[in-house]
Design a protein that fits this description.
Shape: globular
Oligomer: single chain
Radius of gyration: 21 Å
Largest sheet: 8 strands, antiparallel
Structural class: alpha+beta
Strand content: 15-25%
Distance between the termini: 16 Å
Length: 383
Amino acid sequence: MLKSFARLFNAGDKKHEPAVKTNIEVLGSQGSRTSKDASAAFLHASTSPPNYYLYMYGLKSINMDRGGFGHARNGTNFGCIFDGVTSGGKINAYAAQAFTDFFLNWLAENHAMFCYGADHSVIDVAKKAFEEATRAANNPGLENTECQAEGGSATGGIVAFDRIADDLAVLHGASIGDAAVISVSMRDGLARQLNPVFRKHDRDTGGQLTMCFGVDGPVWCFSHEVHADEFIVLATDGLTDNIVHDELDRIVPLIMRCSIFDTIVPFECEEIFKSPPERPGYLYMVKISKDALEPLSAVTCDNASRRLFHYVEWVTRFDFNMEEQFYMLSIRMREAKTDADRKALEAQIAHMTAQRKTTKKVVKTDDAMIIVMRPFHTAVPPR
């Protein structure tokens, strides 16, 4: 058996390098960030219409998905994502950020124990950490009442790597709810979702952490061998709910390779882009890709994260426009001062409601946190 290097590097011995992550002081989307060596990147954005958050929570901008990544001193990366559940508004964004802050620090300090765990199985270590993350002491509202997270809930996932050879690692992960961990192989060009997700229906999270209240649902632990050149994608359901799941293995790599999605697909583009089928299948994606496909070896983590999100913007943009208009009318209705205004707006809202009901709701506007990383970073030379 190849020797594990994880136990040779106890990240708790020395101060670890700061993680790259979303910021609790910013409620809205925070764009893209890439590590200095380009071995990891994230894209934090949303396809939820601004008027939705204005109508529901009185906020112009909010993104309830959070996450980040860091570098372990054994030359591997680690990362986490958390998705604040829809109802509740900013309390869930603060909870998701608190879980992110906790786990990025925990993974840095307990990397060896999580990946090797001499006296504990990975599942025991992970479950204990998930429970610890929800303790009241981790509530940012204790120090700043504006960031109150008590009762806030989020789904999420964490990953770290155990280097077992110069070009091989074992990915160790844990997840709760509908967060996804996906590997994309250079060898066969296919994607594989590494963690299980079980939901009773579309609005079921499949499990979540709740600040100050504990763990609600199963914590799934998983381990897989990965090569140094593989991509590991951590994504909230803002991405995965908009991909045909049965074809995820081929669609995700195709999007990552497709340079068309380097920018937002413009409305004035050719006809095939103007009315995409909701959640287009693999053959449709092949058709639109044409000559725009790069080899996976030419794709960077930053390319991949941007392309995956721009794909989501493309397939949800008609729903986005309809929902933006619906919530604008709802805001005007709430602020209407005369019966005549209210009656006119009621008619417009009834018409929009009928349109929304007849629209085949297959795609979903939502916040998104997409992290793409390689198993290894370049701060530590290969052994």
